[in-house]
Write a structure and sequence with these properties.
Elements (H helix, E strand, L loop, with lengths): L1 E10 H10 L3 H5 L2 H9 L2 H22 L12 E4 L5 E5 L5 E9 L2 E9 L4
Antiparallel strand pairs: 1-5, 2-3, 4-5
Helix pairs in contact: 1-4, 3-4
Length: about 120
Amino acid sequence: MIVGHGIDLQEISAIKKAYDKHPRFAKRVLTEREFELFESYTGQRQMTFLAGRWAGKEAFSKAMGTGIGKLTFQDIEILKDDKGAPYIAKSPFVGRCLISISHSGNLVQASVILDDDKG
């Protein structure tokens, strides 16, 4: 049964501006494993990745009903599977977490569905 759904829309340019001003911004948002992926990219792809993880974590926190604050960016880890699709590898939610991240132009959007697997 679906117990939460969250959506977030983020401007990639705003994430780039934050990163350019404070390069440690990426380490605040990304877990260690996510940061390794981030470093494997260059240029605009890095910013798209960072913005996608930001939006995914915001969407997750909205699905939980808490928002970022009670949860931190480090509580949620979004990795990619063999095909490159994102998945939530770590979170405080017990159950199934579904995530979709999409980007176009200057925008990245993420949607998270939390399912308690009880029916």
